[in-house]
Amino acid sequence: MFDPYVTAEVFLAGGLAVTSALLWAQWQARHAAQAETRRARRQAEQARASREKQLTDLRELAQRNVDYWNAAQQETRHLVARRLPSVIEAVVRGRPQAEVSGLEHPLLAGTAFEDCFAAVEDLVRQAAASVREEVGQAARAGVRGMADEAQSFLARLQMEIDRELDQYPEDSAHHQGLAVIDHFTTRALHTLQRLRVLAGSWPGLRRENSPLREIVESARGRIGPYGRVHYTYLPQTGEQHVEGRVVEPVTLALAELLDNATSYSGEQVDVYLRQVPAGVGVVVEDSGVGMNAFQRAQAEQLLQQRTVMDVATLADERKLGFAVIGRMAADYGFRVDVSAPSATGGVKAVLLLPAALLAPPPAPRPMPVTQPAPAPLPEQDAPDSASTRTSMGLPRRHRRGVRQQAPVGVTQEPTADTADLTALTAGLEQMREALRQGYRQTTSEGDHSDD
């Protein structure tokens, strides 16, 4: 027989062991469940964090796209409203290389938008420059055509004045009045010449080899206050002749220097000739206020370039003298310098004629065989042909000018499109005929109305 106490203890011990095993198993199961729960929670948190990060990235990407889109829209408006008008204005004002504002939004820097906007800007710049050049050429061609016609009429007027001057004594009132008219005609011709030059043409006259003294006197006769111009020269210098093809350009340039000197100085303007190793210098000194550093630099720039008239940026026509001189100097090979002040603080301009532009006197022309002229009236003295001035003090004009084609080597823009010369000529003839018929009709109507 088993001892009941022992049996009870055995059962209690077994139950305790079983209970302990069950509790241990339960604890392990609970611990495993808790670990799994924690792992699942961590995974859930990681998944949630990942989703939140993805959502945040998507939001940021969407915001960047929105900002990029808004920046592109604003930059496009800025291109149309600011950049392109600035480009066009810079080109129109003659500053094609002027800097204009760039990108307004740094977000687009280095992107395709920046490259595309820069390409559009370059295309607009090129298109504006091309249109500007075409407009300028067309305008200059029109100016040259009108100036050439007006110059032709003035040349004929001067020929008629010459005929009248030859028929009256120099001290007569009629002769003196014609001399004044002739002086104004000469100044008008000079104005048209400078207009032709700035329009890309040449002066329109070619002369014989002429002495320097005649060139100075001719230039003096083309300005208003000619009486304030005083010039001196040594005979061996003043009698040196200048090559005929450059006589008129040199005279034109010297007239501009004299006009500038007399315009900015109320005192006497001194002109003298100086022989230098490189050639002959014509020096013009005035007693005006002179030029400051900026004005001198601007003048030097104009004197060293072949300037043509720009209808888009046409400056004050009274300040285009240096541009005329610079173009003539570049085309014909002489130089003009205004860098040094005069002895009285004004402007000292030096026109240097290289030795290559000097020439021998022209060959004497054979005397024409004509009928003997009637003897002059005894109470009238013949005018002195050696004098360089009229009795009124006006500069005497020398009739040596001959209208010819532009000299070889002188650049000139075409006056019109020569692609179809026959059609152009026919069109001009039709226009002349229409104008002639209109003029005749107007004259006829005017005659009838007078009746």
Automatic annotation (TrEMBL):
Which Enzyme Commission number(s) are listed?
2.7.13.3
Q: Kindly state one GO CC term assigned in the UniProt record.
A: plasma membrane
Which residue windows are coiled coil?
30-64
Q: Which domain of life is it from?
A: Bacteria
List UniProt keywords, sorted A-Z.
Answer: Coiled coil, Kinase, Phosphoprotein, Transferase
What enzyme category does the UniProt record give?
transferase
Q: Provide any one GO MF term from the record.
A: protein histidine kinase activity
Q: Where is this region: Disordered?
A: 363-451
Q: Which GO terms describe its biological process?
A: phosphorelay signal transduction system
Domain Histidine kinase/HSP90-like ATPase intervals = 250-355
UniProt cross-references to InterPro entries, sorted A to Z: HATPase_C_sf, HATPase_dom, TCS_sensor_his_kinase
Feature: compositional bias, Pro residues: 363-377
Q: Is Coiled coil included in the keywords of this UniProt record?
A: yes
Q: What is this protein called?
A: histidine kinase
Native organism is Streptomyces aidingensis
